Each structure stands twice: as C-alpha cells, then as structure tokens.
C-alpha cells in the first residue's frame, strides 16, 4: 500500500519526530475523518509499505531524518509559492526554502522532488503580472532540481471566507486563468520542467497524479499496479493510498487551507502518540486495516541486448 503523509496536515514540517517514531515502532493509528471514534491500525513495515509520498511546505525538519526511510521509495510533494505573510504566515523565508530545495535535490535527486505552485490566487497584491514574474523566477531557481511542476487554482472553502474577505483574495477568472497558464507553460518549458495541473480539467495541461505510482515504481525498481483513488474529488487521478494524517492539526495558518478551520483551535498532538490528533480514549474502536502489498518484480526483457 502507498502511504500518504499527508494531505491532511504538514507532517514533515511539524511532526517529523512523530513520523520517524511511527516507522521505528512499525505501526500507526489513524482516525476516520468522518467518524473519529473509528480508528485503524496500520502496519508500517517494508512488507506493507510500497512507497511514501511526503506533502509539505517545509521539509527541513524531516530532511535530517531521511536515513530512516531508506528502505522505502519516497518523494516529496513540495508546495513552494512566492506568498509571504499574511497569506502564508507560518512559513520560513522563501529564499531559504528555495536554497533548501536545491540542496535537497543534490542530496536525494531531483526525481524525489515534485514542485507544487498552488493555489494560484489573485488579490490587490497578487496580480496576474506578479504571478507570471514570480513563477518564472521560481522556474529558473529550481531548474535542474525537479522535473515536474504541478499547478492548481484557488478553491473556495466556507471556513476560509473571513480570510478571503480580509485579504481580498479570489480565484482567477477564466480569461485570467488562460493568461496565467500560457505564461506558466512558456516559463516551465524554457527551464525543462513538465507542467501539470491538479484537478483542473479545463486547463489544457496533462493531469497530475500527486500520488504517483509510476514515480514510486521507478524509484523502487519494481512495478506497482494500483487502482486510481475513487474517494478523492472530481478530476483527481491519484493512485490509491492510505493517508496517516489528521485534519485540524497544522499550525502554519495559511489563509486558503482546506484542512484547518481557523475558527477552531489547532490540535497539536504529542510526538509520542501513536495517532495523529486527539489522544485515544476508552470509547475509541481500534481495528487492524489490511495493508496489501502491491509491488511486483519487474519482468526481465525477453530480448536482452547482446
């Protein structure tokens, strides 16, 4: 099974020690996001984990511990935008993150780093012209350190309404999207980057599989025949995976975040806890979840080169 760590919270940035501990102890407990009292126990071993996808805006805390994940093929979905405070108030200086991106690529290889430029939002501060300039600059800075950039546009979430109104944030309109995408294509192509779109079916770009079984198979040197994840939103082409994070636990405070409601306190969980989020109680129902192994050895060529 592919493990997603995590769409629901930034585990590499804020819970790196927790991640390492869970793999060291060989299991994790995951709450059902719709029925929190239902808890799944998942084995985290070389026999059960086909690959790992780390989602983050700041992998620096986890980067110190990557030796713990050598037995598994893994890559990072790294969201790196030009925004600062107040849109992304909890992140390090972006110049530091750009340098870290390049350094990590030298260490683990550019095929383990997928750059995300999302969400693309507009405001009085962030105009189409400024995005075009900023995206081009990031393409040039990251050229050779990744092979892929994934873009998507801002979605409206009810709990983000107050922040959107305060910052005058909005999604780009149809004409603005077309202008941005045309410029993004030119910048990406000039820097040797493949540009893909996440759940943007009308973008004209090839769809991104953010949970990419082909990439993991290539990194691991095996085949990985998995189904598409049908539980995700329309337009998602991600491979089937199990996510081990919990909503409402990321303290970054990004104004557009779908995973954290600013009207509720962030649940910071213990690095020693077996479960991300609220501590276990006697009312929780814990059940083992099957973690079927999907990877297969690569069949040798019938006609090897002589």
Layout: helices, strands, pairs:
Blueprint: E1 2-5, H1 11-14, H2 16-25, E2 27-31, E3 38-43, E4 51-56, H3 60-63, E5 74-79, H4 94-108, E6 113-120, H5 128-142, E7 148-153, H6 161-167, H7 174-190, E8 194-197, H8 213-220, E9 222-223, E10 242-243, E11 285-288, E12 296-297
Parallel strand pairs: 1-4, 1-10, 3-11, 4-5, 5-6, 6-7, 7-8
Antiparallel strand pairs: 2-3, 9-12
Helix pairs in contact: 5-7
Report on the structure:
The strands form 3 sheets. Strands 8-7-6-5-4-1-10 form a 7-stranded parallel sheet. A 3-stranded mixed sheet has the order 2-3-11. With 306 residues, it is an alpha/beta fold. Helix 5 runs parallel beside helix 7. 26% of the residues lie in helices and 18% in strands. The protein starts with a strand and ends in a 9-residue tail after the last strand. It has a single domain, classed as TIM Barrel (Alpha-Beta Barrel).
């Amino acid at each position: 099974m592919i493990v997603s760590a995590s769409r629901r919270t930034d585990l590499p940035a804020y819970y790196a020690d927790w991640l390492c501990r869970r793999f060291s102890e060989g299991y994790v407990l995951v709450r059902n996001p719709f029925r929190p009292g239902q808890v799944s126990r998942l084995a985290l071993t070389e026999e059960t984990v086909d690959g790992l996808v780390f989602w983050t805006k700041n992998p620096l805390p986890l980067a110190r511990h990557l030796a713990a994940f050598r037995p598994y093929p893994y890559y990072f979905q790294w969201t790196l935008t030009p925004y600062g405070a107040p849109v992304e108030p909890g992140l390090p200086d972006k110049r530091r993150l750009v340098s870290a991106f390049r350094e990590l690529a030298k260490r683990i290889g550019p095929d383990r780093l997928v750059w995300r430029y999302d969400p693309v939002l507009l405001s009085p501060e962030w105009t189409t012209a400024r995005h075009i300039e900023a995206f081009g600059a990031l393409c040039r800075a990251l050229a050779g350190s990744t092979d892929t950039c994934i873009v998507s546009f801002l979605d409206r979430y009810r709990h983000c309404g107050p922040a959107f109104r305060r910052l005058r944030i909005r999604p780009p309109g149809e004409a603005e999207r077309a202008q941005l995408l045309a410029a993004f294509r030119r910048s990406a192509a000039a820097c040797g980057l493949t540009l893909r779109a996440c759940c943007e079916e009308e973008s004209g770009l090839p769809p991104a599989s953010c949970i990419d079984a082909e990439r993991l198979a290539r990194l691991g040197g095996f085949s990985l025949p998995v189904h598409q994840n049908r539980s995700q939103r329309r337009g998602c082409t991600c491979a089937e995976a199990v996510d081990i994070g919990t909503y409402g636990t990321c303290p970054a405070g990004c104004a557009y975040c779908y995973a954290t409601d600013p009207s509720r306190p962030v649940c910071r969980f213990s690095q020693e806890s077996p479960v991300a989020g609220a501590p276990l109680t006697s009312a929780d129902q814990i059940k083992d979840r099957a973690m079927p192994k999907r990877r297969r050895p690569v069949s040798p060529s019938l006609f090897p080169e002589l």
